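> example.struct
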């Protein structure tokens, strides 16, 4: 092992240990007010229908906005727009309130989260939009128009949990309709980019598999498409002023580290602190740029 690799591993372990302590301490101090959901997309005991956004939801607190789209194809392990919904949305909001001073909710209430159709004008009320399994998406013309306007109005999109070359190519085609690549090229985000260091000093691009793949199907491997997804990509598109408009975390499932944190101590220890570090960094970056 080289000295550089040893230094990166030591730094990564230090971040994990520090954030792990913070998560445990936050959970212990606020457990009476907040709950981490478990159940893998079944919310608090049953499959949750889309919680569509309403004007009253936009009250000045942080609101986790999940983008709705129609699937054009199927990806193994994915569920289209509602992949990791609603537990990832809820659990991340709880942890964001515990780990930062972002005003997410009142102390005695659970955080709010909504699903927003890309055809709904309420899309423009969301400063930040989350989408998953986007390698299955096919946008209509109105969705393309609205999403382009969302970016130009200052919105930020984070897409996560899509694996392999087929999923990437499908998503890249959709984004080229929204933001023409000759004007808005996709680029690889370096580890030195400010989004990786907004609050937590993230030293690597972690490959986080779904808990089902990791625990039941692969004997603790992390690449869900084998060789075709062995390399993790953090990619982005920025505007003419250098403002990052979208983050694309490809060949990794950051949101499963939030959704499934309460279901396996080993999975939590390996992946959840790293997943939350990236999530907090991204939200704080998006809200301040």
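> example.seq
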């Amino acid at each position: 092992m080289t000295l550089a690799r040893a230094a990166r591993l030591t730094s990564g372990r230090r971040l994990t240990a520090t954030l792990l302590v913070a998560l445990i301490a936050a959970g212990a101090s606020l457990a009476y007010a907040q709950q981490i959901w478990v159940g893998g997309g079944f919310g608090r005991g049953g499959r949750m229908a889309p919680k569509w956004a309403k004007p009253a939801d936009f009250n000045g607190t942080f609101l986790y906005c999940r983008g709705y789209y129609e699937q054009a194809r199927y990806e193994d392990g994915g569920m289209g727009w509602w992949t990791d919904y609603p537990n990832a949305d809820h659990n991340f909001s709880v942890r964001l309130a515990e780990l930062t001073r972002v005003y997410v909710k009142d102390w005695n209430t659970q955080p709010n989260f909504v699903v927003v159709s890309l055809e709904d004008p309420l899309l423009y009320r969301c400063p930040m939009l989350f989408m998953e399994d986007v390698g299955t998406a096919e946008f209509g013309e109105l969705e393309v128009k609205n999403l382009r306007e969302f970016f130009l109005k200052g919105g930020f999109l984070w897409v996560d949990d899509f694996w392999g070359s087929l999923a990437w190519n499908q998503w890249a085609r959709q984004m080229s309709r929204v933001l023409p690549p000759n004007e808005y090229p996709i680029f690889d985000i370096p580890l030195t980019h400010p989004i990786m260091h907004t609050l937590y000093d993230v030293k690597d691009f972690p490959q986080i598999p779904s808990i089902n793949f990791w625990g039941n199907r692969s004997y603790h491997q992390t690449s869900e498409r084998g060789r075709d997804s062995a390399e993790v990509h953090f990619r982005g598109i920025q505007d003419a002023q250098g403002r990052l408009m979208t983050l694309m975390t490809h060949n990794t499932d950051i949101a499963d580290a939030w959704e499934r944190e309460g279901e396996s101590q080993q999975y939590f220890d390996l992946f959840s602190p790293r997943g939350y570090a990236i999530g907090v960094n991204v939200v704080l970056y998006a809200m301040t740029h």
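> remarks
The chain has one domain: 3-288.
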